[in-house]
Amino acid sequence: MYPTVAEVLALPVVRHGGPRVVAGAAGLDGRVRWVHVAEVADIAHLLKGGELVLTTGIALPDDDTALARYVGELAEVGVTGLVVELVRHWNDRLPAALVEAADKHGLPLVTLSRETRYVTITEAVNGLIVDAQVAELKAAEQVHETFTELTVSGAEPHVVLREVARLTGQPVVLETLSHEVLAYDATGADATELLADWQPRSRAVRLGERTGYDAKAGWLVTIVGARGHDWGRLVVACAEPPPHRYVVVAERAASALAVHHLLAREGDTLERQAHRGVLAELLTSPATPAELAARASALRVPLTGRRLVGAAIRPRLTGTTGPPSSASSQPLLRELAEATALATRRARVSALVGSVDDTSVRALLSLSPQANTGAVLQRLAREIQQARPTVPVVIAVGTAVDSAADAGRSLTEAAHVAAAALQRDDEPRCGYHRLEDVRLRGLLHLLGDDDRLAAFAARELGPLLARDAASGSRLVQALRHFCEHGGNKSAAAAAAHTSRTAYYQQLARVEQVLGVQLEDPESMLSLHMALLVHDVLARSSDPDHPAE
User: Which segments constitute the Purine catabolism PurC-like domain (predicted)?
Assistant: First the structure.
């Protein structure tokens, strides 16, 4: 808000006097709060600090000790500069004692070689200061209006942080009290550099007040929380001590974030949102950018030099039906995500945990290369089953990978395995499913996006599906029981709760419609494969309804 000494010296009214800095040049960036004309030596006790003192020197002593004391007293009260006119008392240069004392205290000492109307300097500088104060008031009003609107609307954290970055021009980070980065806005800076080694850097910044500035770190920090419950810190990275306006912006932003936290209790926590954002990018990015790895590391989940395992946790509502609708699944998945996150903490596993779709919770486990992966997964599966919500869950894992670029593949594989495992009633002894456990169903889920699978299923089952749709018959279900019982008609009839005679008639109609012999092993295998493909495609296209 205030001009620097250097900016004052650049004003035309000052340049007219021929200013020359003779000492204390290092202090030229000091801020001038006011300009004061003083022709007495004992003026220091009347000043508040931040003044630029103008004098002709006519009342200053010639004694070296007195001159040194005069400068020392000015520096002690925080004067930002001393301007002396070389006209009335001293003509060509200032006493050496005055210059040496100014250098000693880092106080800018400036001479004017020509007679200067000090009133024009005070008017010009004080006018600048008043204009700056008015601008500051307007800016404060804008800050007030902006954050009042954000608070009332319960704005999302990324929106609040974007406004902080816009109003300050500085990078801003929202972290938990355990120093995990929840959100940030680098405002054009290098995000990787901003987040590098975040935890140790953040732990080193300890403030004894709710808002404060750490000069060593270059951080303006304010606590985020409400009703006696503090849960985070807002960090504005500014290399220089921040003006008061930055403090106001940070504190108002913290209030808006606290209100959003109170209003959003029915939704994902900020931690889950941060984890979900990284998981979503890992699933969609063909390569892992450095910024994404830095974001994960700032969440205390390193991706480099680690063994990464994708996991999917799906609620098992029934043994045969699909998952609930999107609207009804969200509360359950939020509960399951928090339970999974709790389980990872209990199992002492670093992991990103979040729900990235409407069917399951995903987790990316970051393990030491020396870790016993199987033992860790068993321990985690046990903790998830103990911490899970009221419904049973299916836990599936993908193949372990050693590169963050392959993490998305492991996460995708885990989701396919979980979807296939829902069709099984048995649970593996280890507590989690792998691709080799779901066998053919798992393979078909992995290949579910291949159009040739859909074409194969349509060729094999198309006439039968059309017959069921037209007449209301249940020939597809009859064929399903036949294939699932390995061609044992008696067992299939019992499973269909149909008499043998009626069931045999249904099988005869199946053979007639499809033009095949069900006793032929290759025909039964092909039709069973087509049924499995049909199930996979039906669930992927309409997860709210089970396959026929």
Answer: 7-129
